[in-house]
Amino acid sequence: MNVLKELNKITKKSLKSLKFLEHPSIRIVLIVMLVLYISNIVKPVNRMVSAIVREDIIRLIVVIVIVLVGMQDMLLALLLGLALVVSVSVQENLTDEEENVKKENVKEEKLTYTTNTVNTKNNVIGVSDDDNNSALVNNNDDKLPNENFRNYF
Fold first, then answer.
1. 1-36 burial by CB neighbour count: b if 16+ within 10 A, else e?
2. pTM score, two decimals?
């Protein structure tokens, strides 16, 4: 019985703390702000809030706030719930984009490593880019092919 009395006291105190939602101007401002946030018009704010909502404890606090606001104003609770869903989806999209960027960076590093390895192998053998170009284009038309071959070694 003591637990129920304590819960009733907490509920009454929380409803008293939400009395500011009864003012029409404050309520309208909150509704407009939440609608703008949910519609993704202000993307930098969405990314900032999504970074904050990344933590599980913050999500739990937001759900508790949604329940408390729901006791006073169902419309605001619904909009807060939608805002939470939007924040989580934006956060997931950001992490997917970060993973794609990391994958692209790894591919570029592998390509650079492969290109450097091929160039290193050519230099070890003693073939330079100039030698490769001259082998493709025969600048010495008067020499026989055997003489060009001897010049490489």
1. eeeeeeeeeeeeebeeebeeeeeeeebeebeeebee
2. 0.57
